[in-house]
Amino acid sequence: MTSQERAIRVLIADDHPIFRDGLASLLEPHPGITVVARAADGAEAVALAGEHRPDVVVMDIQMPEVNGIEATRRILARWPGTGVLMFTMAEDDGLLLSAMRAGARGYLVKGAAQEEVTRAIESVHSGGVVFGASLASRIGELLTPPPARSVGEFPMLTEREREILDLIAAGRSNGQIAAELFLAPKTVRNNVSAILAKLQATDRAEVIIRARDAGMGQD
Question: Which residues carry the post-translational modification 4-aspartylphosphate, per the record (predicted)?
Answer without folding.
Answer: 60
